[in-house]
């Protein structure tokens, strides 16, 4: 009787194990280190930009992002190259809400159980951006004095921007068929929309400086009033979980 009971218990245990299609990663990892290549290649204010994502719950995470760039960093033509000097500082804080477990095959119910976040998510972010530009400052004299512009030195302008976006995205992992495991290399893709406010702080030796416009997409360095504008966010990050 005991033998039959043990055999039945083994059969039930084996059947339950066969139905469990959850794939667990080799080691727990709660931090994802990321790099944003598109901010270097396609942003009009190119920056070297990285981020850290920390898991805070089963379906929640927070992400901190920081970037820095200089006048000649962009491989393409940029209005920042029209200035004598320029630099870009960028920061972003984000709260993420993942919708469910990361599914690799919905028909078979295969899923990944990991200590770092994967799958579809929506997020709310807040951003800060500062652009510092330096230009040669010229002022035109009255006609009876001189028709030629007089050089006053260097003029400096700092542009400050604050904004927020509502975003949706997906973070997924690569599969290693040789070891039949999912690697710690991740791809994070997202899009979003929001608003931003920006203002310029101009410092010049003359009363009416003649500065380079710097009129890139959605901005100008010559306006002195605060500006509200709609803002779009889209990007791709490559990450490594550790």
Q: Would you summarize the structure shown here?
A:
It comes from Spirosoma utsteinense. Keywords: Signal. This protein is mainly β and 242 residues long.
Computed Rg: 27 Å
The share of residues in extended strands comes to over 45%
Give the count of structural domains: 1
* Gross geometry: elongated
Question: Major sheet, described briefly?
Answer: 8 strands, antiparallel, barrel
Explain how this protein is built.
The protein is mainly β and 242 residues long. It has one domain (23-241). Helices cover 9% and strands 57% of the residues. It has two helices and eleven strands; from the N terminus they run H-E-E-H-E-E-E-E-E-E-E-E-E. It has helices spanning 2-19, 38-41; strands at 22-24, 31-35, 48-55, 60-70, 85-98, 102-105, 110-113, 119-140, 149-176, 181-203, 227-241. The strands form two sheets. It has an eight-stranded antiparallel β-barrel with strand order 2-3-4-5-8-9-10-11. Strands 1-7-6 form a three-stranded mixed β-sheet, with no helix packed on it. A hairpin with an 8-residue loop joins strand 8 (119-140) and strand 9. The longest helix has 18 residues, at 2-19. It is elongated. The two termini are 50 Å apart. The model is unreliable at 9-26 (pLDDT under 50). This is Transposase. It comes from Spirosoma utsteinense. Keywords: Signal.
């Amino acid at each position: 009787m005991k033998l039959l009971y043990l055999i039945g218990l083994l059969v039930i245990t084996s059947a339950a194990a066969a139905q469990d299609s959850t794939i667990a990663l080799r080691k727990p990892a709660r931090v994802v280190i990321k790099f944003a290549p598109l901010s270097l290649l396609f942003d009009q204010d190119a920056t070297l930009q990285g981020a850290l994502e920390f898991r805070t719950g089963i379906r929640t995470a927070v992400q901190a992002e920081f970037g820095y760039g200089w006048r000649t960093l962009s491989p393409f033509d940029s209005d920042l190259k029209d200035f004598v000097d320029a630099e870009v500082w960028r920061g972003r804080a984000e709260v993420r809400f993942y919708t469910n477990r990361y599914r690799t095959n919905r028909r078979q119910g295969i899923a990944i159980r990991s200590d770092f976040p994967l799958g579809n998510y929506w997020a709310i972010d807040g951003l800060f951006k500062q652009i510092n530009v330096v230009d040669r400052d010229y002022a035109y004299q009255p006609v009876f004095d001189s028709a030629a512009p007089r050089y006053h030195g260097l003029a400096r302008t700092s542009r400050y921007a604050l904004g927020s976006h509502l975003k949706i995205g997906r973070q997924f992992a690569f599969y290693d068929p040789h070891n039949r495991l999912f690697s710690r290399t991740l791809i994070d893709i997202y899009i979003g929309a929001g608003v931003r406010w920006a203002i310029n702080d101009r410092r010049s030796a003359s009363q009416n400086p003649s500065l380079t416009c710097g009129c890139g997409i959605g901005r100008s360095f010559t306006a002195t009033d605060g500006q509200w504008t709609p803002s779009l966010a889209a990007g791709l990050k490559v990450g490594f979980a550790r």
